[in-house]
Amino acid sequence: MDAEDRFELDRATWDRLVEHAWSDFPYEVCGLLGVRPDGEIVHYPIDNAERSMTYYVMDAKQLLRAMREIEDEGYGLVIYHSHTHTQAYPSATDIRLAAYPEATYLIVTLQDRDRPDIRAFSIVDGVVTERSVLVRDEQVA
Asked: What is the rounded (10 degree) CA torsion for 100, 102, 107, 108?
């Protein structure tokens, strides 16, 4: 498996994503991650403007501010959201709205309340390709 087939996530970020998913349960949460060239991850939680249990719409002002910083800094783009009652797999709506082919899409699932999980995907022209998630126990220095 080469680096394109997997997404590396440090344990602290994994924990923050799961904590964020629980923070507005049963509603979906969303946000961005910026991946620095050295692999360090910057977290941008963004309010779900719709506060829905079945879809998300990122708050426009928060999204614009985060996207500007990610682009200005040259970070890799990761778009994430939670599925509070279903598996971590892109829905038809997620696929239709996937507008960034270079992005990694993460879905945090709380379907199994005792075992939250995060799965990663590339979505290009409606084609979903799963990437394995490798969780590092140490943050990149």
From this structure: -120
Among candidate residues 124, 125, 88, 127, the one with its CA nearest the CA of residue 109 = 88
Q: How many domains does the chain have?
A: 1
Does residue 139 belong to any structural domain of this protein? Answer: no
Among 92, 97, 75, 76, residue whose Cα is nearest residue 30: 97
Q: What is the pLDDT, as a whole number, of residue 3?
A: 52
Look at residue 110 and tell me whether its pLDDT is greater than 80.
Answer: yes
Preceding omega of 101 cis (within 30 degrees of 0): no
Query: 123: which residues sit within 8 A by CB, 6+ positions away?
Result: 90, 94, 95, 98, 101, 103, 105, 129
pLDDT at 100 > cutoff 80: yes
Q: What is the pLDDT of residue 90?
A: 97
- Which CATH number goes with the domain that contains 96? 3.40.140.10
What average pLDDT does range 80-97 have in this prediction?
Answer: 95
